[in-house]
């Protein structure tokens, strides 16, 4: 870890280990996304206001908390061979993909642990939020599901039950939603492009949780070309859900592919949406008395949008007021 500042409350995980989570041969998820973000954050003088942490590699037992051992072994084999697909065609293997994906997961778990140990109040990981990976298969460029592993870690190591997962990526967070669909303590809220028009073709408004989890999930599909006005109109539903259930930890997946002019999606948000989501989630975490917010970068395939959207999230994490604990 570098840039140690005793008064810093915000941390960012950066390093080649997670930057290398990217695909070759003209794939839209490139290895340049982290650098594009950090150059913009530096230009905006945000980099001097945070602590930088080095990536951490996940151990097999951490991956196994959500993923099947058979799938983890498949990723290893394909990684060693440097070829093959880990899903039905969107997520190709490349040499070292296992290590790169394991660093994403390990960094997310380490970040959650730092928050729980009160070393930092809020943390941002730009290359993270791989929300399509299922327990036994990759999906949508996502190999291992770091957010899901964080949920498992928080429960096992800290006994935290109520965890909020908020997703503003253009794609539905199916790899988090369906594995936890019947879990009443995973509070799930997702604003995304309508699944009738975009992968993974799901996340309809009537998907609100099943069995004991009914009513603990909110899916808000948006029509193509939905604007900031649509986002701000929908957002209060997310705040109402979280304040009703009072989560003890908040995860934000802030994919920049919901911003206007992304080459793979059709929403038209501006960075105001990302800033508002991060600011309000920080406020809710403070109001609930713990302040715990972990932000994960998610998707985004227009490098300017990635740089601007993630910088807006980082600025919100830095500038959102902290409410001192009551004596």
From TrEMBL:
CDD domains: HDAC_AcuC_like
A GO molecular-function descriptor: histone deacetylase activity
UniProt KW Ribonucleoprotein keyword: no
Keyword presence, Lipid metabolism: no
Pathway info: Ketone degradation; acetoin degradation
Superkingdom: Bacteria
SUPFAM superfamilies named in the record: Arginase/deacetylase
PANTHER family, per the entry: HISTONE DEACETYLASE HDAC1, HISTONE DEACETYLASE HDAC1-RELATED
Name of the molecule in the record: Acetoin utilization protein AcuC
Native species: Magnetococcus marinus (strain ATCC BAA-1437 / JCM 17883 / MC-1)
């Amino acid at each position: 870890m570098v840039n140690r500042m005793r008064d810093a409350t915000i941390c960012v995980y950066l390093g080649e280990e997670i930057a290398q989570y990217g695909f070759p041969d003209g794939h839209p998820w490139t290895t340049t996304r982290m650098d594009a973000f950090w150059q913009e954050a530096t230009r905006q003088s945000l980099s001097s206001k945070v602590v930088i942490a080095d990536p951490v590699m996940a151990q097999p037992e951490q991956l196994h908390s959500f993923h099947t051992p058979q799938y983890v072994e498949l990723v290893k084999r394909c990684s060693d061979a440097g070829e093959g697909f880990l899903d039905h065609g969107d997520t190709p293997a490349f040499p070292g993909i296992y290590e790169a994906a394991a660093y994403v997961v390990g960094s997310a778990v380490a970040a959650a642990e730092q928050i729980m140990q009160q070393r930092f109040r809020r943390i941002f990981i730009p290359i993270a939020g791989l929300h399509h990976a299922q327990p036994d298969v990759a999906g949508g460029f996502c190999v291992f599901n770091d957010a899901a592993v964080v949920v498992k870690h928080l429960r096992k190591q800290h006994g935290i039950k109520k965890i909020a997962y908020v997703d503003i990526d253009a794609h539905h967070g199916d790899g988090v939603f369906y594995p936890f669909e019947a879990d009443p303590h995973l509070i799930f809220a997702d604003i995304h492009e309508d699944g009738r028009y975009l992968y993974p073709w799901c996340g309809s408004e009537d998907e609100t949780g099943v069995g004991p989890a009914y009513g603990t999930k909110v899916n808000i599909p948006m029509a193509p070309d939905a604007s900031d006005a649509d986002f701000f109109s929908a957002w209060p539903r997310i705040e109402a859900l979280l304040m009703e259930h009072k989560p003890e930890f908040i995860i934000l997946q802030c994919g920049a592919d919901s911003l206007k002019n992304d080459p793979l999606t059709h929403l038209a948000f501006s960075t105001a949406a990302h800033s508002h989501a991060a600011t309000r989630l920080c406020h809710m975490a403070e109001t609930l008395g713990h302040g715990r917010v972990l932000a994960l970068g998610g998707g985004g395939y227009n490098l300017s949008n990635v740089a601007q959207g993630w910088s807006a999230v980082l600025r919100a994490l830095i500038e959102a007021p902290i409410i001192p604990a009551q004596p």
